[in-house]
Design goal:
Elements: E1 3-8, E2 12-18, E3 21-27, E4 33-38, E5 46-50, E6 55-58, E7 66-67, E8 76-87, E9 93-100, E10 104-107, E11 115-117, E12 139-145, E13 153-158, E14 161-165, E15 183-187, E16 196-200, E17 203-207, E18 215-216, E19 226-232, E20 239-245, H1 248-252, E21 260-265, E22 274-275, E23 290-293, E24 301-305, E25 308-312, E26 320-321, E27 335-341
Antiparallel strand pairs: 1-2, 1-27, 2-3, 4-5, 5-6, 6-7, 8-9, 9-10, 10-11, 12-13, 13-14, 15-16, 16-17, 17-18, 19-20, 20-21, 21-22, 23-24, 24-25, 25-26
Length: about 350
């Protein structure tokens, strides 16, 4: 059975597959849910971060939700991640919560107790970190615990740096020259240790050495080099999809949207991105999409935007909308997060 968690601006949707089609429940209405993570060690546990209403958890695969003990006073939740490599206590995976202003909280016991991680605020580049819509602050936009080495953690600061820790978060290494400045989504892959995939506001970047060096791979994107989402085929690390636009305004401003999905299916650095539009909504009027690969089924991708949830079963070549209720208010809401469990 497939379970999908989809956070829109004002609602969390829990979508379950069944022999009779897809079943949908709506939760946390009006609480600004913006980040999601399934617990990698506990099949019933998942987390939902809200911008200013705390961190929530479920222990029945999304049917009911309870607020956790995390004290977010004075800060806003911006990102969530669980480690697939590091098992914590009580059968839970290690959990990371990224905040604004930039700090990370981690828990090894399912959110009962917390450790603050903020040494990265002493890095040389930190003085230049700034989020353009709120230039007086910045936040942890993405946390990527490496899927091959439990000591490696990557964090994207919006905006200004992609940083890493090689000792589980005790110390941090600053951004490197020619790396992405404004990473929105970062991926690692079980089949290609050391490879990083970055969808950034300043383009698409890859590293083959854990972020020591980077190269840009924008060929085929034209002027659509503002990237937001990236997902990688769980069985083929060379099959990648990204969501793209010409700039941030076209991605997020509901009155002037124009966004696209591109795919890449090659092992060479000089291959080109190709547009993926078969079965997807019109580019105009579509908020930039959130992307996920099915972690267990090869060639299967999911795409969330303000028009619906879409699935590809052929490596991103074509898409079909999930036949679920989609209210009029969803068309005017920004999608923020997507999580898939098989």
């Amino acid at each position: 059975m497939t379970t999908i968690l989809a956070s829109l601006q004002n609602s969390l949707l829990v979508v379950d597959s069944s022999k009779d089609g897809w079943k949908v429940q709506e939760h946390l209405k009006g609480l600004n849910p913006n980040s999601l993570a399934f617990d990698s060690q506990n099949s019933e546990r998942a987390y939902c971060g809200t911008y200013d209403k705390g961190l929530w958890k479920t222990d029945d695969n999304g049917h009911t939700w309870d607020k956790t003990s995390l004290n977010t006073s004075g800060r806003n939740i911006m990102s969530l991640a669980t480690s697939s490599m590091e098992k914590g206590e009580k059968g839970f995976g290690k959990l990371f919560v990224g905040m604004e202003p930039s700090v990370i909280y981690s828990s090894i016991d399912g959110g009962t107790t917390w450790e603050k991680i903020d040494e990265f605020n002493k890095l040389p580049s930190s003085s230049s970190w700034s989020f353009p819509p709120r230039p007086w602050t910045h936040h942890v936009r993405w946390i990527e615990p490496d899927v091959n080495n439990k000591k490696y953690i990557f964090a994207a600061i919006e905006a200004g740096a992609l940083i890493k820790s090689v000792d589980g978060g005790k110390s941090w290494i600053d951004k490197v020259k020619d790396g992405p400045y404004d990473t929105h989504t970062l991926r690692t892959h079980k089949k290609v240790p050391q490879r990083l995939y970055s969808a950034a506001g300043d383009g698409y970047f890859e590293s083959r050495d854990y972020g020591n060096t980077w190269y840009r791979a924008d060929k085929g994107l034209g002027n659509h080099t503002y990237l937001y989402g990236v997902a990688v085929n769980s069985d083929n690390p060379c099959n990648i999809i990204v969501s793209a636009a010409s700039n941030a305004w076209k991605s997020h401003a509901i009155q002037d949207l124009e966004t696209f999905i591109y795919r890449l299916d090659a092992g060479e650095e000089n291959q080109e991105w190709t547009l993926s539009s078969n079965g997807l909504p019109e580019s105009k009027g579509t908020v930039i999409s959130i992307l996920q690969a099915n972690p267990k089924i090869r060639d299967e991708f999911y795409c969330l935007n303000n028009k619906g949830i879409y699935r590809s079963e052929d490596s991103g070549i074509s898409w079909n909308v999930l036949h679920i209720p989609w209210s009029k208010e969803f068309y005017l809401q920004h999608p923020w997060a997507l999580a898939v469990r098989e």
